[in-house]
Design goal:
307 residues, D-amino Acid Aminotransferase, Chain A, domain 2, 16 strands, Class-IV_PLP-Dep_Aminotrnsfr (chains A, B, C, D, E, F), 30% helix, D-amino Acid Aminotransferase, Chain A, domain 1, 6-stranded antiparallel beta sheet, homohexamer
């Protein structure tokens, strides 16, 4: 096994190998069709966040696509822990990892009668883009709502975390054509805000925390963790239909994701959110509760990477 | 370059290599997001069918996704011809190839600030599944309309030929769970028939040939060729909204695709199409005109592979 | 009154007559237009289940269609009891009846100026198909989701129980073309599961019981009774948007109806539900609670008719 | 066979019988579910209008519902002619008949395992309501657009002529609650005018005749005949999306149906159509061409019944 | 300042002037585009009802349209109080005022490069139409559901109170063409009842009070006050999807608005609501609680103006 | 009549007055509800363009809203000509006017029983923003597709030219927040491009000119004139569903409006249209034909105002 001294390793179809050897045959359905699922958690101070929940969601995605990973959830958890363990020495103390699993259906076409050779399984990690994103925690995210709408559930459920991301990529292309640092948050088929590429959205309206209903969004683990934090600090919360009227009249807004945890939004469609405080007071409370619950000051970590 | 004596070669990022060396890094966006496009034509008696049109459509798909292949259409055509040339000796006289191009956006994430290293380009061919599909030309295809609806154009255009096929895979899983040899043809968001995984649908109703409007379907080259044949034999033709009433009362039905050319449908949702003739008289006329125009008896070729 | 010795009787426009004499003039709007409503309960050990609720719902259906039955709910109840009474001697101890009321608008066309002669009223019963359905309780129901969508409420409310069933018949034709014993459960206009021909659907997901919102489904009395049972056994319950992602990742699934009470589902679209146990543990608890509440082992009754 | 001297006869499951003996068992699916289809033509001066086309459409409706009438179209035509023949002596010279066929799926339930005993077939005629409708030809029809929308094709095709009319009955109830003589014309799911209970709608806008696309409406034979007449008199015609803007700015409007042929509309939603002429000049031309083509002054016949 | 002795005054861009001097330049965007927002409360016995809430809502409407009034909410409240104060002497003791604020974006076009000169601000009052509406409290309102649908939130949010009312005017034109005293209540894009021109709708169904979800309706202050009253009298309440099935089977129905407070509905689409009592017993309870909470018998006031 | 020496005059309710005296009472429904319609043409070298067609369309808008202007189309034309005549001396030789009519329903509320005092009628002109827009003809327009969707026809027809523009203003606010010079072109409810604030959109795709179907857009007179020019120069043309796939793969794109005539589009959503030529060759041909047909070099006029 040839490996650069500082190269990360990954699990790939039964073996731990250097990442440069995790190479997908181009006839793999994961490449040709995006016919694959994944999930992704992160570490906080090198400790894994809610791995069990992420793996549970991974197996729901697999069930939705009827892909058999030929590994049990327990094995998947063990492999994830092992992959992390073997890569931790490669990052600094003030850095952390994304840690994820990717399973494609493998090679083989029912319509041409070629046998399916079984799933392709990868477990891998990569450093969080702390430096790149640090300004977002200082300034807030600028959100643009693109014209492209989120894929409706009767075509493909947004709740399965698959390798079919073009809908979200198109949204990002729209937003970034206007502002290279903007993030897209899409509308669903009913015209309500739903989610962005890998992120959930929340607003604070009066004394209530609101987030889009789970049906049109990936039910993020960090989204759920944020909801739990709201309960912990006694903040009324509801899933709701949230449209642009709500967004334009919100007091505060923020995005959540595995890697972001909670990151404040500064503007939406060029309109300052609330009075422009980043983060707003309620968002600040939630960030604090979140940090306390994971025993890690994620916002401080991001800000420490500001150049 | 190690290559098995009978291994096909493919173009891969600047070089012609054995197919087993066309390996995609797992962080390529083509794998992680299906963020890639492709096109595919076939040979008739080892001669390429309408390569220019397929490459034109490929560049429209690239434009839609804003992917820069760093190759001109002319170069793409030349490479395609070269790849075919170097693989022809590997198939028999009575066999033919699919010939296709695949371009992914490559590695790199705007949201994490990693540079995009440029597109991944593959030109490849593979033998048509003549033997596997031969029975379809004898018996007709059994079509099942699944409950999953085709992705609507405001989420992702069905007219771009991308690597995001889960919507169509879900449709196929539904159909094949009922009948392992059935083909799915989906409804669009308005409840009209649109297309299947890689195939277009036509019906003959009275004295007219009808096919779904182009908006909700990949505007197949073979679809267009079939329309041209209808004109050649003086058959009235129209793009139309075609729903299940039309399908259940049609006189004939068939699918088209690059590889199928024209293949008769025997039944839809368990109902025999028309009087059950496979192919029906009009379909037979179109098959004959098609074969004549490409100077190749594709149906005869398929049937000759019946075991 | 000529009547076969073992012929059931029914109430028909003012009289109790043998069923063979309940004959509808072909110009009755109930025949020509399905311009009629009905409701249907069952007996448990020859005792009527929630007749008051069924008659209340019948009068809501009448109000929706603005049909005047010229009988009060009380009279309808009394007639129902009488019809049952006069037919009980015709079934065995281990058998039970459906007991229903049907009211059409009668003869007469506003658009041609013919007088409406008043409603046609029938009260009738028929033996439950215990033997035919017994295997469902042993093996579970195989559900297929058809491509046809449930009629939307702004065209005709699914909550009124009318004689217009073609939408549901079309769904059944689709399902049974694939599998003669399968049951159809349709999607509503938003792509959520709603109901089948005369049945409601429930899933168990994690520790929660879920069923589609009442808006798109007939608010079944047995559906409500099942919800009551969930409360009784302390099972968290919610009305929810339930799509195929939920269905494919559910732990358990079952159908309810007047006659089925609760019947487990084995598969949906060819995918085994949960781990394939029939019934699953939560379904079993609900069946037990249901049986206890009606003081009748309906599942045992069904299974006793297995040949 | 007991028959009143002046009673009409009808064909019923193999025999010609007095109408009073055409009685449907209440368990017939045609009654319980409206699970039946029909078609209807009329006579002009006692001669049948386009019977072949109506029977062809009938068999398409049968195919859509997968009902087997166990009679060939030829036999159906012959029976229709015979039924008419045997009833002609019952009406006056200045009167005419509707002549129709009705086929239900018969008795039997797949879900309870009762055998289907075969289709119920009726061929029948009834006098046109000439006197009742005569004022419409003098004054024009008042159209009201109800809030209820036409059943969408993915739930049940409006192009099949079935016994499921509640959607249209609800529309009529809305219109007639406001004005007992008004006719309802519904909007389809896209908000375009489609059809009323048994009638098609046309507008004259500038120098063009327009009618809703066939997808959302029963493709009326009289609708087609009117289109043919437009061609005959050189009037430009198109199928089009027609919404309330078109209706409110139309120069003329009329309804067509088998019995109406062409009948002018005076107002829509309380707004006078065009300048209020009944019929307008173009409608008049079409009425004349229609009358000439069927060699019968249908409008004169109606008006002659004015009391 | 020339003013008739009994002329009302209003605030207009910085000054209190006679109403006849509140004149809008025809190039003001409030006139050309309806590009303006407003809000409106009323007095009870000359005391203002919930002015703070109305002004809060006004500023949400301003935020939605990104109009800067160049006045703080506090100033707006003070001006409103002043305008009322200066007009109170013009009405009788048994009369009351509407009191409202209107802010347009002013003159100026981005697309032609003309500067925006700043918002136009009006604060004004006008006497409630007590006499005109008095019969509604005696007889109940007749509601007609028009065919025109409420503007969907992704085109323009119904929750912002703007000067774009044509959608509601079209609805009113439909209803009043049928019955000059009828009120329109529209359906939203999903076919649920939402609101009328300035009014919210409630139904009483069984023991529950229901009103449409806030997303498709202006969240009326009086709507909220009614909900508060329901809580006060212990009446179970829910926001719900309310369609025509609910409306036709409701026990009671009423409208709320700033000026109406609560006014009973007698019929909907020509069908008597419940048993026809005006008001029904639950509506009566709510009216009493409402009157008590504002310390004013609004219904008595209306009825006292019956001629 | 006090008038500044260089002040324009306008027709206002029966008189020609200085523009500063065209003042709308704030209770006029045109202000309160945008309950008004308008139309607008322009001059070419001080000669009016297609006034008859614009006035015809104005009267269709009036009919749609049921507003009676109490003036005949002929009078409206005459007044328009007079207003222009009396203002021509105020502009230079190289300048031109917009010339328009605006009619509101006037004062009065059906719901409060105040009499309607009759329509408010204005005929007015204003100089074209030649200097402001000149750069667009040199550089091309940058189009942004906003997330807000065009109001659907069943809520309010986009084909009537009314004073309700908030939907389009919201779209503009989105676009201009990203780029102060960008123009918004909206999607309709089906996700197709429709129109912008006062402009129609065309694309050139291959050898065909395409523009959105008339149903979702104001059927612009300049749009029609452009279509006429296409016919004149032998360019194949069709109304079509045009979505973002079409837009992103178009060879050329341009906007039309009364004032713009034809103005090239440089980019859409940040993507260069075609090869970036402004105008493209086909657009250039159409501009030339347009200029020739109106005998006026409108593009030259715009460009001559470049500073």
């Amino acid at each position: 096994m040839s490996q650069l001294a500082n190269e990360r390793v990954a699990y790939f179809n039964g073996k731990i190998v250097p990442e440069s050897q995790v190479l997908i045959p181009f006839r793999d359905r994961g490449f040709k069709y995006g016919d694959a699922v994944f999930d992704m958690t992160r570490t906080f101070g090198h400790k894994i966040f809610r791995l069990q929940e992420h793996v549970d969601r991974l197996y729901k995605s697999l069930a939705y696509l009827k892909i058999d990973p030929q590994l049990s959830p327990k094995e998947m958890i063990r492999l994830s822990e092992e992959v992390l363990e073997r890569n931790l020495h490669l990052i600094g103390k003030n850095e952390d990892y994304w840690l994820g699993q990717r399973i494609s259906r493998g090679v083989g076409e029912s319509f041409s009668g070629t046998e399916n050779a079984g799933a392709t399984v990868i477990v891998e990690c990569s450093p969080l883009p702390l430096k790149h994103r640090a300004p977002l925690y200082r300034d807030g995210i600028d959100v643009i709502v693109p014209s492209v709408r989120r894929t409706p559930p009767d075509a493909m459920s947004p709740r399965a975390k698959t390798h079919n991301y073009i809908n979200l990529v198109l949204a990002d292309l729209e937003a970034r054509a206007q502002d290279a640092e903007a993030w897209a948050v899409l509308l669903d088929q009913d015209g309500n805000l739903c989610e962005g590429l890998g992120s959930n959205v929340f607003i604070v309206s009066g004394d209530r925390l609101l987030t889009p209903r789970a049906r049109f969004v990936l039910p993020g683990i960090s989204r759920q963790h944020t909801i739990d934090m709201a309960e912990r600090i006694g903040l009324p919360f509801a899933e709701a239909d949230i449209d642009l009227y709500d967004a334009y009249t919100a007091d505060e807004m923020f995005l959540t994701s595995t890697s972001l945890c909670i990151c404040p939004v500064r503007s939406i469609n060029g309109r300052t959110v609330g009075d422009g405080a980043v983060p707003g007071p309620v968002t600040r409370q939630l960030i604090d509760a979140y940090a306390k619950s994971v025993d890690f000051d994620f916002m401080g970590q991001y800000l420490s990477h500001l150049s």
